[in-house]
Target: Outer membrane protein assembly factor YaeT
Amino acid sequence: MKKIILKFALLSSLLISSLTISAPIKNIEILGLDTISRGTVLSYLPVETGDNYTDQTSKKIISSLYKTQFFKDIEVSQANQTLTITVIENPHIKYVDLLNQSEKVIDDDALQQVLSSMNLTPGKIFNKRQLAKLIEQLKATYISKGYYGIKITEKIEIDSSNRVGVELDISEGEVARIKSMHINGNKVQKEKTLLNLFQIGEPDFFIVNYFTEKDHYSKIALDAGIETLKSHYFNLGYLDFKVSDVKSELSKDKLSIDIDIQVNEGSKYKVGKIEFTGNMLDESSESLSELLTISTGDVFERKKIIDSIKAITDIYTNQGYAFAKIDALTSEGEATHIINLKFKVSLHKKVYINRITITGNTRTQDEVVRREIGIYEGGLYSNEKLEESINKLKRLGFFSDVKMEVSKLRGFDDKINLSFSVEEAKTGTFSVGLSNSNSTGASFNLGIEEKNFLGTGNTLNASTSQSKAVKELNIYFSNPYFTKDKHSISYGIFNKKTEGSELKVEEYKVNEKGGSIGYGIPITKDTRIGVDLRLSSRKITCGTTFSGVDYEQAQCSSNDKTEAKLSINWRNNTLDDYNFPTKGDSNNLKASVTLPVADFKYYKFDASHKSYRSLTKNLTLKTSAEIGLAKGYGGKELPFFERYYGGGASSVRGFNFNSLGATYLNNKARGGELSMLMSASIVSPVTFMEDSKNMRVSAFVDAGGVSEKVAFSTNDFRASVGLGFIWLTPVGPLGVYAAQPLIKKAGDKTSTFEFTIGTNF
Model:
């Protein structure tokens, strides 16, 4: 009987306990919330009202809430069918600041992206594990850049509102410098040639090294150099080339490093048979072969194959096949070290332009941008026309950057959208102030200069300049799209007073008034021809010190005043940018003649050429040449104030402004009827400075001279070498030049240093 009673009591106890533990939840209370909402917590709970509470429920709740990383302490209890959850929130981030951070290692934009990806931005829940991860990542980045002594000290403060402020104090230490760098195993290529492929290496001459920081070690730069080394050998046909070992030995003080790179060049491969397969349309194997930059028997150069693929691709993309794909398939030839090539053409469908959108043009009207785009909505895709369109937009000078993106139209495999994104540049200025020029001296300036007037693409200049040498008033307007056929029109009025003695030439005064009108038409997409008529009247006064004994005195005493000059000009421009081109050409021809209906009778012929070629990613070779020829006709001499002069920033640098050529007895320049100038320079961005996209440096060689008559003599030839710096400031291009004459004559006036505003390279 006792056993039965005992069993009954035990069973009743278990039943009562079971009912208590699995009682349904009628209410949920959450205590301790500060910034996190009740709804947010409820969304993460594995239970809701109406569910049964068991001995496993609290464990599941605690586990689920800890995973959110919102809380540093969680307690769960249940009484009278009420589930009570008591929490202590993790603090929220008030700020995360890096002290003494070097932007040349981690720039601000990259840092903000990292902080955002780790949820370490203001307002986010603070997670110490994420902070530790950030510190390790920062250290790894510094070490990869050669800062092996990097130390980061953290300071964490929590205020009364449970907000945390984090300061990371960075002590970079000194960057490890490359003590020695060698490449071993090379037989075909010289070590010096290979080392020049790396941006880092043993230090240059100390002055150059100060700017280039070539001896600053960086694993990133080393890895990039190794990839360049591989590409170099592959492009030479050494397809088996390998970098077998790279040893970087760091000194004990972590301030210097020795690098040894072991290579295995392998054998050189040549091209065997070349075939074409796939959908070639009307193109024959022979016509496609003419596009190749490589042929059977040539060294297997990867760059030439890539260039060949691009040439073939362009043939089809310019016919509307935007997604044409050309694969270069390789196979081993019968002979050793021979690679056969098979170009496979895959065309897909012709693609049409669905929509063209333009963004970023906050000032420039859409129409001004669209008229430079040589492809239209509904038209066939053409890669060539799109590249030309981008170059034309850049040549306008209205935009500091032009980008284009292609996106497929959803549901259509034969339609695409084009999006042009532009960044407006400063195209005009309103100026009031004083300036100083090597050519005209100190002057007072007032004016408006705008080459994109009201965003229309038209040019308006209204300016006045008052200096000792020149007093000038100009009002000029130009519309490059006067008609729908892209004809242009221009007109203006002017008044110019010139004081010759202040221009470093002989003493005279010219007061000229007049106006001009011009008209231009396009010949090709890059070429225009124009005509300009300029009518003016001059009053000439010569000083008593005028030492000319020839026709100058006769011109001073004559009654010649009026001039009607007709000019025809031809221009061709394929440059890829307005301010700082890196490729393309600019050619100008201008023939001018004064009409016999007026007093002055002379003609001029001027020609100029500029070309830009990319040497490397940052280096551009610029070459230029100018020739000017002027003569009188009808029994009259060329007016002395229309002669050519040379020397100075826009001519042969290193010589005084307007100092070249024949002189009068008082050693002032006489000018000449023939001018020949040429220059070659290497232009580079200022890579050692931050935010220097509007700056360039150059090393140049200038040469040329001015001849009194149309017969150039070696005695007139001058040459110089030097360095230049240009900065596009809000008031115009600022140029600084240091030059040293290479060829000069006795009596030449030289100038080592020049400063100009308004001159480009």
Notes: The radius of gyration is 38 Å. DSSP finds 13 helices and 31 strands in the chain.
